[in-house]
Amino acid sequence: MNEELDQIKNNHTWELVSRSYDKNVIGTKWVLKNKLNGNGEVIRNKERLVCQGYVQHEGIDFEETFARVCRIQSIRMFLSKSIKWMLNMHF
Description:
The protein is built from two helices and two strands. It is an alpha+beta fold.
């Protein structure tokens, strides 16, 4: 857990501020996971500190959302267009 907290601190992910009583405070929780090798033996314990975003209300706590994940359909479309483009190229 100290490694995760150090990364959060080094990346300036968030900063500690005084509590404002007119704002909603979002809690956090630790998500723990064991990484296994092919034999099912634990090779590393991983942990992440995540926000409990389900307590937020749109328009009050946030205005817009952003997710860095991509839908599989978008990846497939991009790959198929790229392959089609490459096949139509004349070398």
